[in-house]
Amino acid sequence: MASTNKTTYYELSQYVGSDKPTYLTDYNTDMANIDAGIHAAQAKADGADTKADTADGKADGAVLTANTALTNAGTANTNIGTMANLSTTEKTSLVGAINEVDTGMKKNAGDIANFNLTTTTSYTNSDFTFTNCTGIANACDITIAKNSDGSLAKIYGRVFVNVSSGAGASAKISTTLAPTSEFTINPIGVMQNQSTKAMWYITATVKTNGDVVFNFPNIGQGDYYSFVMPCLYYIKDFGDIPVS
């Protein structure tokens, strides 16, 4: 007959005095339970070994990756060079140095963009005020192109006049130029007597109210063609001393 009691975990036979053990039932069942328990424990142990081996392999891979990263970092650091040798003001942070360069580039781009002559105005005979001369019909046209803040301008064109008096002849136009102080461009162009073909330089005075006065030399009466050379001029006063 079967045992009266069983063990807690594998249900092995536990007999009392009145039990009659049987090998075919009790013993064989107990051996089967023991065998199954040992096999299950062995399987778990083998699985743990496999997982441990896998973890060990991953750990080795992680170490290799870390060593490679460390080597690459060292190479990158060598390639970057010495921070103290940077030409920027910022020398302790690479990001700060890059931002400093970026800020400078943006400022330079703005300065370069400011060289664009965005406003162009043309002046013809009716826009001129002549002194001791008269404008030859349809032969006076001056163009002024300036940048956005008016610090830079290009003046070019022609002023063809008949001089009635040899002294103090001039031609004036009122413009939007606004220098902080009056200055004279000497020379701004040349003029030629249409009879003798003799040539002289002419000057231009840019006044603070925007008037541009083309000054002709003291010459005799006659027809004169004046050509204003197409040049860029700084209208803003940078405190420099003009060469006379």
Please summarize what this structure is.
The chain is of the alpha+beta class and 244 residues long.
Task: Please characterize this protein's 3D structure.
By secondary structure, this protein is an alpha+beta fold. It has three domains: 5-61; 87-114, no CATH class; 119-234, Adenovirus Type 5 Fiber Protein (Receptor Binding Domain) (Sandwich), CATH 2.60.90. It has two helices and eleven strands. The protein has helices spanning 23-80, 94-113; strands at residues 5-6, 13-14, 119-124, 129-131, 133-146, 152-163, 170-174, 183-193, 199-206, 211-215, 222-234. Strands 3-5-6-11-8-9-10-7-4 form a nine-stranded antiparallel beta sheet, with no helix packed on it. The radius of gyration is 50 Å and the shape is rod-shaped. It starts with a strand and ends in a 10-residue tail after the last strand. The mean pLDDT is 84.
Structural descriptors:
11 strands, 3 domains, Adenovirus Type 5 Fiber Protein (Receptor Binding Domain), 2 helices, two-stranded antiparallel ribbon, nine-stranded antiparallel sheet, rod-shaped, 32% helix, alpha+beta, 244 residues, 33% strand
